[in-house]
Write a structure and sequence with these properties.
The chain has 13 helices and no strands. It is an all-alpha fold. The N and C termini lie far apart (54 Å).
Amino acid sequence: MSRTAAPFSSHRPPVDRVLPGIGLMLVFCMVAPLIDVASKMAVQTVSAGTVTLARFMVQACLMAPIVLVLRLPARINARVARLTLLRALAAIGSTFCFIAAVRVMPIADALAIAFVSPFILLLMGRFLLKEQVGPRRVAASAVAFFGAVLVIQPSYARFGTTAILPVGTAACFALYMLVTRHLSREQHPVTMQLHTALAASLLCLPLLAFGTATDVGPFYFVLPQGGVWMACLSVGVAATVSHLAITYALSLAPSSTLAPLNYLEIVTATLFGFLFFGDFPGGMTWTGIAVIVASGLYVIHRERVVARSAVRPAPNSSNLREH
């Protein structure tokens, strides 16, 4: 499970760097839903906790040689270690909730609900960090939650409380991005992904041990067999590829340019859900998706307006005299 909610930047890279950034963002939108497809296949046989562990273990194994090839520093101080543990816990919560949801829910429905994470992040910044958030963006967040309710309502009637799990995904992912904002100032993004995957793998082990000992189904460790191995491996591979794609996309193009493209993930998720599982959103779900996307695009527009006003030079004394 990988959703984006990166902070906006006001810099303007050259066009020849923006286009590759857009291309990598499109790669993310194509690959990220494959995490959900592979997870949905695997979780029919093994527990959501098992798939979550597999995702982070595979990601750690794939990221380690990349860090070595790039010769990135691997040492971290105590503060970064604490933030990495918090980021890993948030990643576990986000991944587990989504995998548990798609075990029975259509991928597009679960993803649409999880797409309220940027709005939760906005509200976290406002009420936890006292960041300045205008009333228009707060109103857009409220509208987005209304859109999520439109998606949850028919899903709740069919799947019960499972339909609320993607909200847990959204909340955990918002915390994940909040911590990422702080870590990104002190750590290379590729190294950050490796450390988070390693920490999440280690944290999953006692959770699964407890779940297995107490016979708690979602956390009960089940050794994958046959084709389930391939599905679990695919979850980790797709997660690694999509994370690298979006990491380098954000290094080439401003997030304000890339953020609207993120909603294409709903299109590819719907397509894959239909092709692999025969799932297709109903009328109420599409209405909710439209409300969430429209609210998201409005927030992106407001972010651009704020970014432009922040870099606009203040009037000098001569201008003041002329007026």
